[in-house]
Amino acid sequence: MITYRLALATEAEALKALLWQHGQNEWNHLTEEGVNGEFELLKQGGASAMVAVHEDEIIGFAVLIDAVHSPDYLNQYTGQNVMYFIGDVVVASQHSGKGIATALLQACIAQAKHAGGELVLIERHEENLASAGMMRKAGFQIIDTFHDPQKRSAGSQNSCILAIEL
C-alpha cells in the first residue's frame, strides 16, 4: 500500500538523491542551482514536499512552493489570486504508471487549498507526455505555451504553464 504525507526535514537528502536518480530526462530541466534552491526553500519553510511511501521507502515526491518564493515569471498568471507553484515531481521508475504522481499532485492541491490558496500553477515541457497525463488527471489545464530554449533543449523547446483554480 502507498501512503502520502508531508516530508520530514531529515528526509531532504534522500529526496534530492531520488530526484537526481529518477528525475533526469530529455524533458526535464534539472540544474544543480535549481535543485539546491528548491531544497533550500524546503529547509527554510518557503516550500513543502509531499512524499509517497511504499513499505517504509520514499518512492516519489512533489514540491509545493509558496507564491512569495515562486519564480517571478509566474506572476503574470496569478492576477490577485493567492498562488502556489508545484516544482519538481518525481516517482521512482520502478513505480511509474501507477498514478502516484497524480496522487502527489492532488495532495499538493489539497494542501494549497487548506492553506488558503486560490490557484496552483505547474510547468512542463510541451511534449512531455507522462507529465501531461498526470497533470491532466489531477485537473490542471494549459493556460500558456511559449518558446523556452534557455530551459528546454529537446523537441519543440516549448514550455507549458498549467493551472488549477481552487
Indicate the topology.
Blueprint: E1 2-6, H1 12-22, H2 32-44, E2 47-54, E3 57-66, E4 83-91, H3 100-114, E5 119-125, H4 129-137, E6 141-147, E7 158-165
Parallel strand pairs: 4-5
Antiparallel strand pairs: 1-2, 2-3, 3-4, 5-7, 6-7
Describe this entry's structure for a reader.
The chain has a single domain (2-165), classed as Gcn5-related N-acetyltransferase (GNAT) (Aminopeptidase, 3-Layer(aba) Sandwich), CATH 3.40.630.30. It has four helices and seven strands. The protein has helices at 12-22, 32-44, 100-114, 129-137; strands at 2-6, 47-54, 57-66, 83-91, 119-125, 141-147, 158-165. Strands 1-2-3-4-5-7-6 form a seven-stranded mixed β-sheet. The radius of gyration is 15 Å and the shape is globular. It holds the Pfam family Acetyltransf_1. This is GNAT family N-acetyltransferase.
